[in-house]
Predict the 3D structure of the following.
Amino acid sequence: MKKVTTYRVQLPVRWGFLFWLFLSSSLYAQPFRSEVSPFEVAESSGDLLLNPFAGGLDLTRIGLMDIDEDGDLDLFAMNISERLRFYRNEGGTMFRREVLTGWESAPLRSWFRLSDIDGDGDADLFTSGERSELLLLRNNGSNLSPLLAEGDTVRQSDGTVIYTEQLTVPTFADIDTDGDLDLFSGNVDGTITYYENVGSREVADFIFRSRKYEGLLVLSPAGTEREKEDRSTESARHGASVLDFVDLDGDLDLDILFGDFFTKKLLHFENRGTRFVPDFDTLWVDSAFAPTGDVVVSVGFNQAVSGDVDNDSDFDVLVSSLLASASDRPIELYVNEGTPTSPQMRRRSANPTSEVDVGRFASPVLFKDSERHGLLVGSEDGSITWYEIDESGGKTRMNLSRRFVLNGVTLSAPAAGDLDNDGKWEVVVGKGDALDGTTLQLYKFEGEDLLRTPWQLDTTFNTARSSASPTLGDIDNDGDLDLFVGARNGRFYFFRNIGSPTTPIFEVQSPPSPFDTLDLGADAAPRFADIDGDNDLDIVVGSRQSETLDYDTVRFWINSGGLFREESEWSPMAVARNPVPLYVKLLEGSFLFVGTRPGGLLAFADTSMTSSVDRHQLLPSTQSINISLSPSTGEAVLGWSGVAGEGVEVVVVDILGEERIRYRLDGSQGSQRVKLEKLPAGLYFWRAGEISTGSFLLIR
């Protein structure tokens, strides 16, 4: 066996597997390929989105760095999933989503900072440890091909560990212009901790100087009427904070942009000292960016990251609110339309990453009747966003049309179909609670409005009690639509239509096997779809796996004569958190859309060209490849037999599709031990030519 192994990131080696989830078969791998922009998607203004299916943003930590060394600043973003995402600066203020596996597979917790702490010309990565200790992942490679060392605890000169407070995001700045980077971190009491770097640009050496840097203290007025009158520290609020240092007034020293947990505006502390000896005072504070430009206003806890985004020789500012209630405007871009010394900051975009984002917990469904064709997308706030689909001119285009606000609804999850056979589809909306007696409501289009209408299932409290996620389909082939529902508890509920195609009557029955006993943990979201092209309804399900993982899965149950079973031809897919799948057929082909917790959509093109029956017939049943684990040695054992032909390779990829290991099989049968010590924890997929596929979940 000839071996070629590729490792893009060096990570800690800590053996001791908690478990290995292994799936194997002798069929093809599931055929979906991730695509960020498979067809045009336009905002309500008509402007096309650059990254429509990038997945959305939520509680997003951000950073700017010229990672491709082309002279402009690229964007990194970290969602609640604690995984980096890279957006390349395309010029102006346009960022294109691309995958840089070396960065995006890095282990992060709570926050990140990119900074060249050792002066070797590439970015190093900082993040939080389990106990909020400051960790450095030193880059021993390059910006585009990083080799990140094991996370090393950052200490002071005397060996004392440096800790940061939870929720805060520390930052680095050369505040005294001595050529190295000093460390600043906000505290929950409204102060700033300062560590001076007394080392050099190449070798950092931090010494604690102050827990109340320059005497700065940020207190936000409390909410009650009494507290509004009494602005003493006893009646004011203070909380976590995020800092950014930038020369706001062009006087060659660094000022502070301060995002406070309880403050809706971004604060600006003016440096009235020099670039060598800073001088700040709580009295010298203002709202950014008054008076000549727009003022930053959000729900609070604003992270500002400054830099020359549009490459016009002055600073611009990206602002991200780190509160969940800011889900409809996760990042905003403020462009300097003035000069470096007289900045005029204007809000240029509330969607600088140019992607579909409906808030949080996106739940898509296709709607196509005699009058309308489009995509309805539910969200956490209960609204439903409507994207019209235009297939004129031989290509698909989605246009954002409007947002419907549903009274008393949260976590809206729409399903669509013609329940009364009048050519006009209805919308069944699952919702987050049953406070009004039901988690399933019925809506109909009346003109351009989506209006609620009474129906039989307005009392379903004792069935699907919370976070109902419905799908409609004729599962029993009797000519009418049945209702299949997933719920927050990870289980399923079935409402068989015992009426007629024109007069639906639903009866609660046991779901088809295995869904009658299946428990997927949390937030089960089923969808009917004919994914294998045999003209019956299969079931695709997204669900929540574990709060400890940074991804969830979509799984496929194939309908075989009325029996549903998982086949590894359609192996589980690792996707973003809280996935809600939707399989659609458009002019460009078939796609699996996935709604995500951040409120965006992912798109996966179905690359299969034949039916599942044809693919089964292509595979010799005598060929076998399998993998088993040897925990004591930290190795996997690869075995094969009956392999025909030469040059069959086993390829292992991570969840981003990046190849991690490749082996070529020698002979028709044999075995080989595969060392895995450099693979970080996560979900991996493997494929052996067209013979066998599988996946494994590796947890250290």
